[in-house]
Amino acid sequence: MIGLVMCGGKGTRMKSSEEKLLLRYKKPLIEHVLNALQNSKIFSNIICVTSNNAPKTREFVSSLDIDILETKGAGYSADLGESLSKFEEMIFVTSGDMPLFDSEIIKKIVDLVNEENVWTSVLVRKTFLLSLGLEAEFFVNYNNEECAYTGISIVDPRRIKNMETVKESYVVLDDKRIAVNLNTKKDYDLICAT
What we know:
194 residues, Spore Coat Polysaccharide Biosynthesis Protein SpsA, Chain A, 7 helices, globular
């Protein structure tokens, strides 16, 4: 399985002059995610998906000897689609802005996901997010509950052609290690206050 870290976005909602994934919570945000993936010892390779939107992030992950996959920087979904077409094994996709992410939650997610599914997205309940003081932009109704995407998916790219619509499966896991991803200054201030 390959660990694929999406880290080529502009981070405009953060309203910071610094690239979002280089903002610090003890260390740069992206480093928390990379360390978690490395420490899980699950992945045959860890690759960062970058773009010209975040040149300093690309430079930073390169300095850590992490492989880079350059995309057009056309947005999360487009960049993910462009990336998936290059692989022939299962992919663990994650965003690079999760400061509480760790190897134990990665192992738990991998254990929960049925690899027979083409695409499994990990969700948290909206009520759980709100209890943490967090908000999200994108929700899906699953089992009669509003749930938010965490930015984590396990995908079999061999069974996807040209990003055609595939049946998406879900795993709901209310855990702050995956619920906390920093998209806005409010999110960042909240985590820095803990």
